[in-house]
Design goal:
By secondary structure, the protein is mostly helical. Helix content is 61%, strand content 4%. It has a two-stranded antiparallel ribbon. The C terminus is likely disordered.
Length: 279
């Protein structure tokens, strides 16, 4: 600590010693420690702004990305479980008040439909083999698992949920229709419309043909109705005759898919014992 002592016209410094172990003297505001803290804060802010600017310059939104890049497809999988569950629920509600396309817009996803199709492939193949096992009980021949049903189920399901919606969107685009239906919207619509097929495929293992036909009617009344009502609302701006034809064709294709599942995967049932002819 330096103090001054006046001696005439000369000011001489006077020093005083500080005992060892004593706390450091108080430093007023504006000292070097405060300056160091301010510099560190400014440095952190500059680093943060630099990272943000670099991220803004380097980031590419999915809307402007090329369709062959991974970023383009990320927007179709950017969905949480709550939204997917809500869409799965509304895909099973065949009510006129059910605005299912409103649930998909403005951000339709492919994540939910993809898992619906994958789950349906395995549930159909497994249930079909279980149904064959029940039907073969009591026969002399040994039952074997048919792995071809997995391949056939995957081929039929993925062909249906890609070609039919793509044809619908392409046809409306070709006609320069007033109905705006993007490809991803039609893919999402058709993928979610198969939701009710999953529990129905499990119940179709029941080894009674009349129960299976009742389940077929339930599938048509739920999945088919949701799909038909949604398409009919979408085509409200089209001429009524054209809208009716398009809706009828798409409904017929959906019913054909349901009947194909019933006739191929669950055709066999328990056989009644053949009566012995009497002479």
């Amino acid at each position: 600590v330096v103090s001054t002592q006046s001696t005439g016209n000369t000011v001489l410094p006077e020093t005083s010693t500080v005992p060892l172990g004593a706390p450091p003297p108080y430093q007023p505001a504006g000292t070097s420690s405060d300056y160091k803290i301010a510099v560190d804060s400014d440095t952190e802010l500059d680093s943060t702004n630099l990272l943000k600017s670099e991220g803004a310059e380097g980031s590419t939104t999915p809307a402007t990305s090329a369709f062959w890049s991974l970023e383009f497809y990320q927007q179709f999988f950017n969905v949480n479980d709550e939204i997917v569950l809500d869409r799965l629920l509304h895909a099973c509600l065949p009510l006129p008040s059910n605005d299912f396309m409103g649930k998909l817009r403005p951000s339709p996803d492919i994540y939910g439909p993809l898992w619906v199709c994958i789950t349906l492939v395995f549930s159909t193949a497994i249930s079909g083999n279980i149904a064959d096992f029940f039907a073969s009980m009591g026969d002399e021949t040994e039952w074997t698992y048919d792995f071809k049903k997995v391949t056939i189920a995957a081929t039929v399901i993925f062909l249906y949920v890609t070609t039919v919606p793509a044809s619908l969107s392409g046809y409306l685009w070709w006609r320069k229709s007033n109905t705006e239906l993007k490809l991803v919207e039609s893919l999402s619509l058709y993928g979610y419309s198969l939701t009710v097929f999953i529990p129905a495929s499990i119940l179709l293992c029941i080894n009674h043909d009349w129960i299976r036909w009742m389940l077929v009617l339930v599938i048509i009344g739920t999945s088919g109705a949701v799909l038909t009502l949604t398409i009919w609302k979408l085509l409200a701006g089209e001429p009524r005759q054209m809208a009716l034809i398009i809706t009828a064709v798409l409904a017929a294709l959906h019913v054909a898919l349901i009947l194909l599942f019933k006739m191929y995967f669950f055709a066999q049932s328990s056989k009644d014992p053949t009566p012995t002819p009497t002479r």
